[in-house]
């Protein structure tokens, strides 16, 4: 039946419709995940801190994200009087669009990706760099010294840790031989362990640390340290604009976790030896496996936030430049040497 | 080239309302990049005129004002005031009252230190310690409520003794607390003590040498972190502190980490003192019976005995009118440091001059010395380590 | 050395300045005139027999109508090394309420002297930054003096900022949601 539709409207229109449908599905599912990521953060951190988290709105607080969304929607839109109005308005939009558009190249399971481009990984780096613009613009346009400091700190931190992350993924690219994300997942199936985690454990470590720094999450959340700068670069935002920044942060978490799952954990596949040993595992759809790995990563974000104190700013920068980048370079050299001789 | 570009420092106002300044403390920082060049604290936002009010109140009715100085450890302030007035009048409270007062002083020391730990860790980023600490603080608050009906601003110690006796239920519950608490201290320490990030944020920050600390007038754990073992409980013993055994922890390096370790060890010593107080608690009256002109007579006698009623009436309206003429300085070791009372008495029932020497006032004055030259994030660590409560600083 | 013997020695060294030695409940106080305060304090701080390294407290007392001179500045000194405690009371008269500062001897005296100035109006010569500390900067009057009333219906002496605040809140009422 689908072929009949394709014959009728022509190849191009058909492809466009398929892409639009896929986009709608991915966007909707991602937004739902983001909403409930906030809910689960509060619940998980609450239970770690001997308290319960949201309990009142709905059964065990399950309708809390909807309440938060409604509140953000109806709140008064305050713009500080000295603020640079167009920049102030555009900053959250840039932050949000940069991270959401990264979702378009992530393969969630075999064959399902909105845009199967050959430079998927590079595209994601480009988009996350663009996200840094949103932060700088927000910090500057708010006309407040606290947000200015927060914006400066955050942009410097994001830029430094992007380098380390990019270099760590070069090892993965060398082993997979391609920048296409679907190809990277398929390349992992060629190994007995099924994941690049085992040969590339240094790169995994660097990427995980960089993951926390990119998304401004603890222990690298000095730019938005509540006790010092009271939310840093988005301190002057309220209502829907604040919700955009929040969305951008959580979508960034999901995107980074997806990259980690794809590049290091084998994406939607399970290791071959496992599937051979327990054949029923082969029946699980790839999307379920991908989601489980993703949820574990997001849980890691919450766990670290509840446990660790915050790095001071200069310690953070020295960690990024003096420890992670040399380690990443060493990893690249070792990987290339091993690949050359094997 | 640097001279061609004119640049100024950024003036940042950590205003009275700020999550990290523990009350209404205003700091104006001038920063050059991330380094603090100048730091000016402004206090006085919580000034309530306690000293002036006390001059117009009798010695007994000035007692509730003392609660509200350092509202986190209110028992200790009250005990300090009662000890000062007793020394002035020459009253000796009975042994049972002394042991009870030491016991509640140590409970309030534990309560204040775990609140300090929670807020200090929260400022540096470890949020979970804050909630664990408040779990214990709730227990202590419940114990206070069992004892005297109030959780925060108790007015339990009285001139000449305490207000009412302790019940056996209270002592049993307190003993259970002492048994359970050391394992909780270890829980807090597991989270932060050996954590690399914590060590990096606290070691080598806010260093002050012993001579300079004494010259600035530091007292309490802020001073003992630098290696000086001045503790009012050992140097000028009051209440039952000369009848119990305890150590005074002293640090070495004088940085934030040394003071943190001092306070954690003080928690353990306080548990030790409380246990000894419970075991050694003697029987007897809780109010000095041989000082009828200075202390309130017991209520059942007031309703039956004429003389007790007259004393009660005069005490509450005019104060102890047979007070001696003279002056005294007396100090106690509150959790923040040394709280001193200088009372000048002119023979009437009201203090002529009541001066409160608060440790937080002196510590805040030394904030510029600690902060200048370090980074903005260290200012937060320094405010946490000197353990200020603005109620005490501003009176 | 007992505090009493220290007081005697100070009286021997500065016979005209020490007015009396008071002892009450085993605490010794020396009452001195304010002219050679700096020398006496330096001696107490530096001399190895005394070595009062810790300035516990510095405050003012107002003896209006009880005795003259009107004010006294009271210093409490303690020596951690030798464990002796001493009180030094300096008499300050009303017409010229100035005293030498001791901030170059003990740095901790800084804010205590500012508070004494704020509350009593006693000026400290040589203080690096003498301004009000607990009261607002534009306050008039010195609250802890005995002729400063306690209650707030002061009439002319009322703080102007309070009246401004009341006016402002009246104007802000127009934004209230009824």
Describe the structure.
The complex is a heterotrimer of chains A (342), B (395) and C (178). Chain A is mostly helical and 342 residues long. Chain A folds into 2 domains: 74 residues; 263 residues, no CATH class. In chain A, 43% of the residues are buried. In chain B, 49% of the residues lie in helices and 12% in strands. In chain B, helix 4 runs antiparallel to helix 16, helix 5 runs antiparallel to helix 6 and helix 6 packs antiparallel against helix 11. Chain B has one domain: Cytochrome-c3 Hydrogenase, chain B, CATH 1.10.645.10. A 3-stranded antiparallel β-sheet of chain B has the order 1-2-3. In chain B, strands 6-7-8 form a 3-stranded antiparallel β-sheet. Chain B has a two-stranded antiparallel sheet with strand order 4-5. Chain B is globular, with a radius of gyration of 22 Å. Chain C has 178 residues and is α/β, with parallel strands linked by helices. Chain C has a single domain, classed as Beta Polymerase, domain 2 (2-Layer Sandwich), CATH 3.30.460. Chain C has 4 helices and 7 strands; from the N terminus they run αββαββββαβα. In chain C, strand 1 and strand 2 form a beta hairpin. In chain C, 37% of the residues are buried. The interface between B and C is large, with 42 and 37 residues.
Can you describe this structure in just a few lines?
Chain B contains 17 helices and eight strands. Chain B has 395 residues and is an alpha+beta fold.
Pair with the most extensive interface? B-C, 42 and 37 residues
Which structural category do the helix and sheet elements of chain C fall into?
alpha/beta
**Counting H and I runs of at least 4 residues, what is the number of helices of chain C?**
4
What fraction strand of chain C?
25-35%
Count the E strands of chain C.
Answer: 7
At CATH level 2, the architecture of chain C is: 2-Layer Sandwich
In CATH terms, what is the fold-level topology of chain C?
A: Beta Polymerase, domain 2
Cα-based radius of gyration of chain C, to the nearest Å: 21 Å
Per the principal axes of the C-alpha atoms, what is the gross shape of chain A?
Answer: globular
CATH class of chain C: Alpha Beta
Helix content of chain A: 55-70%
Q: Which ranges of chain A are low-confidence, i.e. pLDDT below 50, for 5 or more consecutive residues?
A: none
Shape of chain C: elongated
Succession of helices and strands of chain C: HEEHEEEEHEH
* Total tally of structural domains of chain C: 1
* Mean pLDDT, all residues of chain C: 85
- Round the Cα radius of gyration of chain A to an integer and report it: 21 Å
Helix and strand run of chain A: HHHHHHHHHHHH
Average pLDDT for all residues of chain A = 85
């Amino acid at each position: 039946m689908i072929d009949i539709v394709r014959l009728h409207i022509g190849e191009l229109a058909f492809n466009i419709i398929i892409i639009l449908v896929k986009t709608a599905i991915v966007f909707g599912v991602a937004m739902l995940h983001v909403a409930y990521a906030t809910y689960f953060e509060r619940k998980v951190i609450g239970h770690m801190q001997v308290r319960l988290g949201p309990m009142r709105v709905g059964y065990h607080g399950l309708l809390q994200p909807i309440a938060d969304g409604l509140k953000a929607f109806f709140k008064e839109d305050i713009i500080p009087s000295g603020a640079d109005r167009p920049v102030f308005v555009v900053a959250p939009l840039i932050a949000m669009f940069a991270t959401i558009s990264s979702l378009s190249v992530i393969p969630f399971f075999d064959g399902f990706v909105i845009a199967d481009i050959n430079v998927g990984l590079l595209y994601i780096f480009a988009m996350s760099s663009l996200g840094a613009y949103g932060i700088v613009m927000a910090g500057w346009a708010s006309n407040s010294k606290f947000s200015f400091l927060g914006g400066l700190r955050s942009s410097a931190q994001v830029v430094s840790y992007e380098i380390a992350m990019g270099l760590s993924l070069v090892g993965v690219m060398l082993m997979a031989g391609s920048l296409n994300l679907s190809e990277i997942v398929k390349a992992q199936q060629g190994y007995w362990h099924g994941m690049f985690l085992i040969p590339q454990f240094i790169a995994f470590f660097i990427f995980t640390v960089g993951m926390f720094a990119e998304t401004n999450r603890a222990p690298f959340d000095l730019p938005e340290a509540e006790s010092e700068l009271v939310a840093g670069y988005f301190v002057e935002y309220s209502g829907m604009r604040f919700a955009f920044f929040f969305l951008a942060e959580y979508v960034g978490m999901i995107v980074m976790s997806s990259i980690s799952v794809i590049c290091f954990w084998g994406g939607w596949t399970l290791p071959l030896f496992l599937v051979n040993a327990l054949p029923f595992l082969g029946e699980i759809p790839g999307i379920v496996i991908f989601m489980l790995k993703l949820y574990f990563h997001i849980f890691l974000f919450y766990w670290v936030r509840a446990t660790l104190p915050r790095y001071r700013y200069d310690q953070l920068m020295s960690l990024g430049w003096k420890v992670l980048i040399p380690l990443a370079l060493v990893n690249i050299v070792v990987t290339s040497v091993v690949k050359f001789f094997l | 080239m640097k001279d061609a570009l004119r640049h100024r420092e950024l003036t940042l106002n950590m205003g009275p309302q700020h999550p990290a300044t523990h009350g209404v403390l205003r700091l104006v920082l001038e920063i050059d990049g991330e380094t603090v060049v100048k730091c000016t604290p402004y206090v006085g936002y919580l000034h309530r005129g306690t000293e002036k009010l006390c001059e117009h109140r009798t010695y007994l009715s000035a007692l509730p004002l003392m609660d509200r100085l350092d509202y986190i450890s209110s028992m200790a302030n009250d005990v300090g005031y009662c000890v000062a007035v007793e020394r002035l009048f020459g009253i000796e409270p009975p042994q049972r009252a002394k042991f009870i007062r030491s016991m509640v002083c140590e409970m309030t020391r534990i309560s204040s230190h775990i609140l300090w730990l929670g807020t200090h860790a929260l400022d540096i980023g470890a949020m979970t310690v804050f909630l664990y600490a408040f779990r214990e603080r709730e227990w202590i608050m419940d114990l206070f409520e069992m004892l005297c009906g109030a959780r925060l601003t108790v007015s339990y110690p009285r001139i000449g003794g305490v207000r009412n006796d302790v019940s056996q239920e209270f002592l049993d519950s307190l003993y259970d607390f002492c048994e359970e608490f050391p394992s909780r201290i270890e829980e807090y320490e597991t989270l932060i003590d050996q954590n690399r990030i914590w060590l990096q944020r606290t070691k080598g920050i806010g260093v002050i040498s012993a001579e300079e600390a004494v010259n600035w007038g530091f007292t309490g754990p802020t001073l003992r972190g630098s290696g000086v073992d001045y503790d009012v409980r050992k140097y000028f013993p009051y209440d039952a502190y000369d009848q119990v055994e305890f150590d005074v922890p002293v640090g070495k390096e004088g940085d934030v980490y040394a003071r943190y370790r001092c306070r954690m060890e003080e928690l353990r010593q306080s548990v030790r003192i409380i246990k000894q107080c419970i075991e050694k608690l003697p029987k007897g009256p809780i109010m000095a019976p041989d000082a009828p002109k200075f202390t309130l007579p017991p209520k059942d006698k007031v309703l039956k005995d004429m003389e007790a009623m007259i004393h009660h009436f005069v005490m509450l309206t005019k104060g102890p009118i047979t007070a001696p003429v003279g002056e005294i300085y007396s100090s106690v070791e509150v959790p923040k440091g040394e709280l001193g009372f200088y009372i000048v008495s002119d023979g009437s029932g009201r203090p002529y001059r009541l001066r409160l020497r608060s440790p937080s006032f002196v510590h805040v004055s030394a904030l510029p010395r600690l902060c200048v030259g370090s980074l903005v994030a260290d200012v937060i660590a320094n405010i946490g380590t000197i353990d200020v409560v603005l109620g005490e600083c501003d009176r | 050395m007992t505090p009493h013997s220290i007081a005697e020695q100070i009286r021997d060294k500065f016979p005209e300045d020490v007015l009396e030695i008071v002892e009450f409940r085993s605490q010794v106080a020396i009452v001195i005139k304010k002219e050679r305060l700096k020398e006496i304090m330096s001696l107490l701080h530096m001399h190895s027999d005394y070595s009062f390294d810790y300035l516990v407290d510095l405050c003012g007392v107002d003896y209006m109508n009880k005795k003259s001179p009107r004010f006294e500045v009271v210093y409490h000194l303690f020596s951690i090394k030798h464990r002796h405690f001493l009180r030094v009371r300096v008499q300050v008269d009303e017409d010229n309420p100035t005293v030498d500062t001791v901030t170059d001897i003990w740095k901790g005296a800084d804010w205590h002297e500012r508070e004494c100035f704020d509350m009593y109006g006693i000026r400290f010569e040589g203080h690096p930054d003498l301004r009000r500390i607990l009261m607002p900067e534009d306050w008039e009057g010195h609250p802890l003096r005995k002729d400063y009333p306690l209650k707030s219906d002061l009439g002319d002496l009322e703080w102007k900022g309070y009246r401004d605040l009341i006016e402002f809140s009246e104007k802000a009422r127009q934004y209230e949601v009824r």
